[in-house]
């Protein structure tokens, strides 16, 4: 099944199970984010990707400059392991990571989660690519992706025990937009997909086409 078919099915399931008042908060937040202009202001094709150094769940540091010496770098920003949409995307990426590697590219996924939760993300999905911790959203901020959740959405997440301070290790209640970048060895962004609505993600096949020689 195509990834976005899975995401649509997930949305339909949530709409059938979740009380309407909670869904209204989520829909309103997604609409506000889509109209905020944040996605339009994020780094796009032709921009230079900021360099970063981030740890994985084991504490090993990964430097973007080192990865780019090997070839193109695919960077996926996701919200966290508590996000069902992110989990579906990570599982889809796991299915194609060998095809990505066959093109000479590297794949990494970045979230604001603590190293503990990044480790749990990798373990849950048996990921064969790094899941990196960007605590404080420092790397995501340099890509122009960071936003603060509205008080209404914060309260809604707390009501369903999705307490971001516990996942992210701070009280900021900030997340990155769902975004996927392809960065060439010269540091230039050659492909970008930024989704203000976190319920949408690029299809794996679309990403593979951008990497095809």
Tell me what portion of residues adopts beta-strand conformation.
15-25%
Output the radius of gyration: 16 Å
Number of helices: 10
* Structural class estimated from helices and strands: alpha/beta
Oligomer: single chain
Shape: globular
Low-pLDDT stretches are none
Mean pLDDT, rounded to whole units? 95
The termini sit apart by 26 Å
Notable features of this structure?
213 residues, two-stranded antiparallel sheet, 10 helices, 9 strands, 46% helix, 18% strand, globular
How is this structure best described in words?
This protein has 213 residues and is α/β, with parallel strands linked by helices. Helices cover 46% and strands 18% of the residues. It has helices at residues 3-17, 20-34, 38-41, 64-70, 84-102, 115-125, 138-142, 151-159, 164-168, 204-211, and strands spanning 53-55, 61-63, 73-77, 106-111, 131-133, 146-148, 174-176, 178-183, 189-195. Strands 5-4-3-8-9 form a five-stranded mixed beta sheet. Strands 1-2 form a two-stranded antiparallel ribbon. A two-stranded antiparallel ribbon has the order 6-7. Strand 3, helix 5 (84-102) and strand 4 (106-111) form a beta-alpha-beta unit. Helix 1 runs antiparallel to helix 5 (84-102). The longest helix is centred in the middle third of the chain and has 19 residues, at 84-102.
């Amino acid at each position: 099944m195509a990834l976005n078919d899975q995401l649509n099915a997930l949305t339909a399931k949530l709409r059938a199970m979740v009380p309407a008042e909670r869904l209204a908060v989520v829909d309103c937040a997604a609409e506000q984010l889509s109209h905020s202009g944040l996605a339009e202001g994020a780094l796009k094709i032709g921009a230079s990707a900021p360099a970063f150094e981030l740890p994985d769940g084991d504490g090993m540091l990964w430097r973007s400059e080192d990865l780019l010496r090997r070839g193109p770098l695919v960077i996926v920003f996701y919200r966290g392991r508590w996000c069902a949409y992110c989990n579906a995307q990570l599982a889809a990426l796991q299915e194609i990571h060998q095809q990505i590697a066959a093109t000479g590219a590297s794949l990494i996924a970045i979230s604001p989660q603590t190293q503990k939760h990044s480790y749990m993300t990798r373990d849950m999905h048996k990921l064969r690519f790094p899941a990196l911790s960007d605590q404080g959203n420092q790397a995501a901020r340099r890509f122009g992706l960071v936003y603060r959740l509205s008080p209404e959405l914060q309260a809604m997440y707390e009501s369903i025990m999705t307490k971001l301070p516990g996942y992210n290790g701070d009280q900021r209640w900030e997340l990155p937009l769902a975004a996927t970048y392809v960065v060439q060895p010269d540091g230039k962004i050659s492909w970008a997909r930024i989704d203000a609505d976190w319920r949408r993600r690029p299809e794996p096949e679309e990403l593979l086409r951008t990497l095809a020689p």
